[in-house]
Inverse folding.
C-alpha cells in the first residue's frame, strides 16, 4: 500500500512537472509569436514607407522623361530650322 501511495505521489509530481513545462513552453511560444507579429508590423511600415518613396521617385522620373522628350523635340525642330535656313 505504501508503494502505491508513493507511486501515486510520484505520478502526480510528473504530471505537475509536465504541466509546468507545458505552461513554460506555451508562454515561450506566445512570446515568440508576439515578437514575430511586432517584427511583421515593423516590416509592413518599412515597406509602406519604401513604397511611398518609390512612387515619388517614379513621379520625378516621369517629369524628367517629359522634359527630356520636350527638349529633344525642341532640339530636333531647331536643327531642322537651321538646315532649312542654310539651304536657302
Amino acid at each position: 500500500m505504501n508503494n502505491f501511495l508513493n507511486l501515486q505521489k510520484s505520478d502526480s509530481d510528473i504530471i505537475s512537472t509536465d504541466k509546468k513545462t507545458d505552461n513554460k513552453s506555451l508562454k515561450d511560444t506566445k512570446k515568440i509569436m508576439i515578437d514575430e507579429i511586432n517584427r511583421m508590423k515593423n516590416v509592413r511600415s518599412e515597406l509602406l514607407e519604401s513604397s511611398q518613396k518609390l512612387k515619388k521617385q517614379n513621379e520625378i522620373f516621369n517629369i524628367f522623361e517629359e522634359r527630356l522628350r520636350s527638349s529633344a523635340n525642341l532640339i530636333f525642330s531647331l536643327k531642322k530650322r537651321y538646315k532649312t535656313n542654310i539651304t536657302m
About this structure: The chain has a mean pLDDT of 86. Residues 12 and 18 are 10 Å apart (CA to CA). Helices lie at 2-87. Residues 2-87 form the longest helix (86 residues).
